[in-house]
Recover the amino acids of this structure.
């Protein structure tokens, strides 16, 4: 185990060095074989029988994609954002650096960005809100809308121990935190049925792509596993970043997940937050249990706890942290070894 | 006038021929000098004083962009979508063809796609809804949410005279109308203050870009004019597509707009819809009046009413119609002549 962590640390240092050497390449023109957008899933719903009533479409998931030339050498990667955010998560960072979406494309992968069902371009089911407005339903039937305040985001995203304070080694570009706050939008997942249509749609997307690596973060961190348990057919790999893991899976669920390579990644300062609604150390511990369950079932699950690999100061928003591209390299190296080598 | 229309018709036929010849080029790899996303505008709002209260950011506008090599030869183009839609409007069409966003980029222009404030990735002010849920405000204070049903969309978007019927010459790819329905998401503009922050943000975006052509459609069709009347500084051109025009502008407002080249475009069958909430012929007539007002003030406003130019069957969603790229060529030719030639 210690040797494994040492190996990972050395590999990471090499990756950091390679990242610096490759930085100049990131300014070269980006060449795309194709790009576009589409929806996965969706169903019709009647809005009732009154005047103006009719059908609307709900539970669809908006997906945009970019494909580099020769993408077929690598498995496509689907990225799904967390609570109170949109696919903007993966794009240009708050301080204007390249996001994982473009970086993965430049590294030869087709990348699919989704807005969760009930968020952003995927829309939401507005009929429950309108029913209350019309007096046809009580105010209590309105959804619980999560809109994280700046104060909550600061500690939940682990920019520092309390609001306004930072960790000395913090990797988040805190001087541009206002740009992150603009990414934070109301979360209407309280309107969703169970199972969450995003899970189903992620599975359908993997199927449409004839195989994909599903990546989730925070609220959606365990969505790849949920998607695979519903429809494992073309889920070739799972990347779960900074989320609570379910530890109550039954043996047949674990057996499904044991057939899929899984990478779990956590940043730094998990126990260094004072107060706030999230307990990241607890989440980390639950994922340790989950990784062990999968490996005990002869699966291939890897936990990368970054500080144990010598990578310090990463926040919850590690795809936006200053070392975001080096972390992306870690993930792609894992995909190459655990997923693409099986192709 | 008749001669003008004839000239436009001949030019359009040449453009259609050129489009066919150029179609093969559209399959070539897309080369981008840069791409990314950011927010324009936005302000902090306190959520109150209770437990969990804090500050959220509202009224920001999400913008993504792509810049081709040598884009400096043309003025950047900002595209803003209409009611119950997002920037998806300009991307891949419902039947999977190239949208205006990529086509304009392939034609050498930097393109900026915005989600209107209060929609999609721009988020919305959820505090009013949560106040009702908490019992702190009456249900009547909930916003009027517009969610266009399939039935309403069919006639408002002029796919045919009544729901389920099509026009024989209709240009919309009606066999994939279900994919359009998935683009239609609840419109929360009822939450917005006056002036609409999208107007202000569009002006700020033009300024940030040191000059831009602002394009709006339907609900946002007159937003470029509104933006210019607030902050005309760097609005170099306006493209207003299928919207009601304001005909009650005062002379100083008209004087502002008379300094900016303006193109107004309308499709076909404006008077051929039976019932429904939109009266497109009335909108068209209002824009005829507006165009005359601007030109009477020595402005440069052009009305392209497509059927009068021999271009038949276009729906309200003309950026998704089967001849969408030929229409894009018409617009770019207008930009070259009326905007870029002034650079």
């Amino acid at each position: 185990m210690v040797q494994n962590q040492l190996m990972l640390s050395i590999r990471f240092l090499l990756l950091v060095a390679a990242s610096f050497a490759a930085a100049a390449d990131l300014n070269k023109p980006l060449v795309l074989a194709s790009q576009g957008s589409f929806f996965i899933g969706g169903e019709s719903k009647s809005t009732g029988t009154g005047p103006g009533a009719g059908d609307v479409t709900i539970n669809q998931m908006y997906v945009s994609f970019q494909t580099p030339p020769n993408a077929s050498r690598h498995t496509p990667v689907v990225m799904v954002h967390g609570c109170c955010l949109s696919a903007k998560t993966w794009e240009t960072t708050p301080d204007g650096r390249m996001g994982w979406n473009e970086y993965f494309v430049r590294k030869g992968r087709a990348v699919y960005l989704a807005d969760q069902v009930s968020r952003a371009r995927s829309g939401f089911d507005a009929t429950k809100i309108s029913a209350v407005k019309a007096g046809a339903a009580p105010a209590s039937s309105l959804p619980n809308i999560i809109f994280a305040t700046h104060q909550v985001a600061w500690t939940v995203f682990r920019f520092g121990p309390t609001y306004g304070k930072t960790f000395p080694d913090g990797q988040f570009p805190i001087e541009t935190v206002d740009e992150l706050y603009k990414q934070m939008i109301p979360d209407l997942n309280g309107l969703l049925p169970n199972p969450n249509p995003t899970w189903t749609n992620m599975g359908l997307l993997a199927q449409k792509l004839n195989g994909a690596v599903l990546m989730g973060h925070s609220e959606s961190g365990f969505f790849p596993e949920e998607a695979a348990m519903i429809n494992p057919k073309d889920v070739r790999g799972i990347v779960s970043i900074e989320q609570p893991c379910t530890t109550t899976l039954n043996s047949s669920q674990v057996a499904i997940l044991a057939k899929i390579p899984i990478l779990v990644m956590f940043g730094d300062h998990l126990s260094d937050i004072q107060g706030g609604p999230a307990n990241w150390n607890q989440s980390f511990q639950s994922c340790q249990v989950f990784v062990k369950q999968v490996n005990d079932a002869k699966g291939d699950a890897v936990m990368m706890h970054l500080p144990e690999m010598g990578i310090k100061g990463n926040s919850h928003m590690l795809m936006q942290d200053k070392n975001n591209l080096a972390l992306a390299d870690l993930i792609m190296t894992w995909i190459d070894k655990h997923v693409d080598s099986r192709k």
Summary: The mean pLDDT of chain B is 94. Chain B touches chain A through 66 residues (CB under 8 Å). The CA atoms of residues 237 and 260 of chain B lie 6 Å apart. Chain B has one domain: 2-342.
